[in-house]
Specification:
single chain, 60s Ribosomal Protein L30, Chain: A, 6-stranded mixed sheet, 26% helix, 32% strand, elongated, disordered N terminus, disordered C terminus
């Protein structure tokens, strides 16, 4: 049978390998008490998070960051899964008259604080199983395995999932269109000798503005104007000034304080591509925007992960 040392982990039970059609071996299963295990939400305009704590192991998380697709991941506190292939199973709760199980999806365990991660499509498969009231079980090779059939099982309970999912979906409707990673270094391009950008660039600046006005940790915005190498140097310096000020004025008109803006211009001095080609000159006709941000407290930062 099993050694006593392998069973001395609070909050887990040992499931028979035969339940999932496995071979002889042992499987340590990490799960919370049915009567206390619940789903919780962390909601903001920056991220929507739906999660469940798994005692003595970590947490299961559905995360949708602003500007990104939903994903699902397991975050571990105690390392129990070894890197390699794993499988998700859907388990009918034990209190139902006719218990059954089925394979739902495969997974790849990596050596990290988030050893299991799934994209939008795969996360939806897992979400649907929980919505239907089924348990989810991830079976992977145990970190301390003595043989190839020694497993670690992570069980995710469906209790309270539907109510928490309603709150999660309401949060999705309030998300910003972008996150900080997507806008903290942005570029607006200009046509020819123009000092006004095209309408296509307005969406980028509007999204940037919405983010800045929502994030209290933004400390400032640096706006830098540039030109290509065509024409006289003095004219280019003036043109880059007009471009930078045009962008800065656009941001101010939409609510960003002038005190937050630092406006600079450089003419043709800092090309990022060759001025000998049409494509290169188009890249150089630009205004770059850098959004500076004070790092928030760890508990606030964790909500957007």
């Amino acid at each position: 049978m099993f050694s006593a040392a392998r069973l001395l982990v609070a909050g887990f039970v040992v499931l028979s390998s035969a339940l999932l059609g496995g071979h002889a071996g042992w499987a340590a299963t990490y799960s919370g008490p049915m009567e206390t295990t619940r789903w919780k939400n962390d909601s903001s305009v920056f991220a929507c998070k739906l999660y469940q704590q798994v005692p003595q192991w970590g947490r299961a998380v559905f995360l949708h960051r602003a500007g990104e697709e939903q994903r699902f991941y397991l975050a571990q506190v105690n390392r129990q899964l070894a890197p390699g292939a794993a499988n998700w199973y859907s388990l009918t709760p034990s209190w139902r008259a006719f218990g059954q199980h089925q394979s739902v999806a495969s997974a790849q365990v990596t050596e990290s604080t988030e050893p299991v991660s799934h994209n939008w499509r795969e996360s939806q498969l897992l979400l649907e199983q929980l919505r239907e009231g089924n348990q989810l079980l991830l079976r992977g090779q145990a970190w301390a395995a003595r043989g190839e059939h020694d497993f670690a099982d992570i069980v995710i309970e469906p209790l309270g999932f539907r109510g928490a999912l309603d709150d999660f979906q309401r949060c999705l409707g309030s998300l910003l269109p972008v996150n900080y990673d997507q806008i903290h270094r942005s570029t607006v391009h200009f046509a020819g000798a123009s000092d006004e950008f095209n309408d296509d660039e307005r969406e980028l600046l509007d999204n940037l503005t919405r983010y800045v006005l929502s994030d209290p940790y933004v400390t400032g915005i640096v706006v830098d104007g540039h030109t290509d190498g065509s024409g006289l140097r003095a004219d280019n310096l003036e043109l880059s000034q007009r471009r930078a000020e045009f962008v800065a004025n656009y941001l101010q008109e939409r609510g960003i304080s002038a005190d937050m803006l630092q406006v600079r211009w450089h003419g043709e001095r800092y090309p990022i591509a060759s001025n000998r080609t049409v494509a290169g000159r188009a890249e150089n006709r630009r205004v770059t925007i850098r959004v500076d941000r004070f790092e928030p407290p760890e508990e606030t930062l964790a909500q957007s992960r």
